[in-house]
UniProtKB/TrEMBL annotation:
This is Bidirectional sugar transporter SWEET. Keywords: Membrane, Repeat, Sugar transport, Transmembrane, Transmembrane helix, Transport. GO terms for molecular function: sugar transmembrane transporter activity. Gene3D superfamilies: 1.20.1280.290. It is a multi-pass membrane protein. Its main location: membrane.
Length: 235
């Protein structure tokens, strides 16, 4: 009876953390909107790079596959947040291709095809693993590695903030959304006893704290308006 009650509490806490993570992730999904309004208005991608969106799409697709019932039956909220994230990235990539110059357009189409090919290999390859636990382990390791590399991407921005003593390229609400989303999925992974979720999001939480600390330390010395960064991380 006590065990059943404790298990029910864990499930409720896990679901609450996962739902919160999905909500906070929306702030990250829409963060490039300002950049793409500028691209559409100027009908040119200018100096912006499309690579972060390609990599974010790959990350979202790998994590969506890990969260699917075929790989892990108890991670539906991981699948939902990353599938929505993948849709956003596809929209951004499509807009980028439409307004990019010919050389960038060809390069982006090639990279998009490479992502589709890689995901097809991962899905097909993992389906050949008949042991469910081993399949979850393999895809989980890929998902974990992808997430950690995504969360590590703001290290360049952190270094830039320290060197310039300015938070111009690190908007507060984006850093806050990253921290809240990472913390939510850290708790989700802990409540679900899933190290492939709580380990990378633990890294994301730590980096989120660092970004917020730097923001409050350097915000008074920043000049000019904040710009939207092109790198977005998901849980």
């Amino acid at each position: 009876m006590v065990f059943s009650a404790s298990n029910s509490v864990l499930i409720i806490c896990k679901d609450a953390a996962g739902i919160a993570g999905n909500i906070f992730a929306f702030g990250l999904f829409v963060s490039p909107a300002h950049t793409f309004r500028r691209i559409i208005r100027n009908r040119a991608t200018e100096e912006f790079s499309g690579l972060p969106y390609i990599y974010a799409l790959l990350n979202c697709l790998i994590c969506t596959w890990y969260g699917s019932p075929i790989v892990s039956s108890d991670n539906i909220l991981v699948m939902t947040v990353n599938s929505v994230g993948a849709v956003f990235q596809l929209v951004y990539i499509t807009l980028f291709i439409i307004y990019a110059e010919k050389t960038k357009k060809v390069r982006m189409l090639g990279l998009l095809a490479a992502v589709c090919g890689l995901i097809a290999i991962i899905v097909f390859g993992s389906l050949q693993i008949t042991d469910a636990a081993m399949r979850r382990l393999v895809v989980g390791l890929l998902s974990c590695a992808s997430l950690i590399s995504m969360f590590a991407s703001p290290l360049f921005i952190i270094n830039l903030v320290i060197r310039t003593k300015s938070v111009e390229f690190m908007p507060f609400y984006l850093s806050l959304s990253t921290f809240l989303m990472s913390t939510s999925f850290l708790l989700y992974g802990i409540f679900n006893f899933d190290l492939f979720v709580y380990v990378p999001n633990g890294v994301g939480t730590i980096l989120g704290i660092v970004q917020l600390a730097l923001y409050f330390h350097y915000k008074d010395s920043s000049k000019g308006n904040s710009r939207e960064p092109l790198i977005v991380s998901y849980a």
